[in-house]
Amino acid sequence: MTSTESGTTYPSYEALLERAGQLAGTSWGLFPDAGRGTPSFIQPGSVRDAASCVRTGAVFGLDYPADAFDPGMSLKRRAPRHTIYSAHPAHRDDYLDGYYLQGSSQIDGLRHRRADDVGFYNGTPDGDIREGTAALGIQVWAEQPIVGRGVLVDVDGYCRDQGTPIDHAAGQPLGLKLIRAAAEAQSLALRPGDILMIHTGWCEWFLALSAGEKESQRDSRRASGIEQSAEFVAWAWDNRVAVIAADNFAVECLPPVPASPFRDTAPNDHGMMHQQFLAKLGLPLGELWQLGPLSRHMKAAGSWDALVTVKPLNITGATGSPANATAVT
After folding, report:
1. Fewer CB in 10 Å around end: N or C, the chain?
2. Model confidence pLDDT, tens digit, residues 71-88
3. CATH architecture for segment(s) 2-75+97-328
């Protein structure tokens, strides 16, 4: 059990697994604000401490353009169509058509995934997850943005230094042992409420491909990312991580590894961890973040933390949103 600045006590992941019935392995009912999830780990003191991470004054936008991934890995999402119009010679206005809120750099909301075995986060009824309803909607993090200490684990740089660059074309799984080794090489220690950013180099690799190569990679359904394991889920929860973000398609690897322990509980996702994080723990996931420039700056500066803000679009009931993430070092 660990306590936060407010005095709220949270059990270990092992203890979560021992909760009764549908509560087993979940954080349902543990957070004061039921719809906020693990960003609740970020306390006022955490935000004040995050401000001390600003040393150079350098500012980094962590979102790619809305149309960057066209074609992308998604079989459904397409780039939005941007139209500018005018009512008279001195006026300009514009709008978007076909705007997929998770088509580029994004944050997954808690209604993005339903756990196959127990349902939506906090036992929210399926009927409450529809357009125009607020339950588990992204607006919770828009009305009170996620602001805290962001830490970047440069797995891409670590693997290159070891002479074993990540094989993005093969969809290489990145295990917890590797991620921890990279963090230790950076002398990086997690604190409760951290926004964990994992730099894999996947986005820059993918965006450098030709259109035909991107389509071939999409059709292969392979993307490098975190290896599915109960150990990684436990590590993230026990370290009180507020958000997990990565510069890749799905945070975790695709396809899920054959040994994924979640194949029985998440059959519709073929054993992915999305249901564990979003529907059971209330832990938001950031995907397709632009981490390359930030990683290179941090390496040169010799520090791996920053003040990070995440301000989704204020759309009631949205399942996800552009992250609108910013890092200040």
Report:
1. N
2. 999 999 999 999 999 999
3. 3-Layer(bba) Sandwich (3.50)
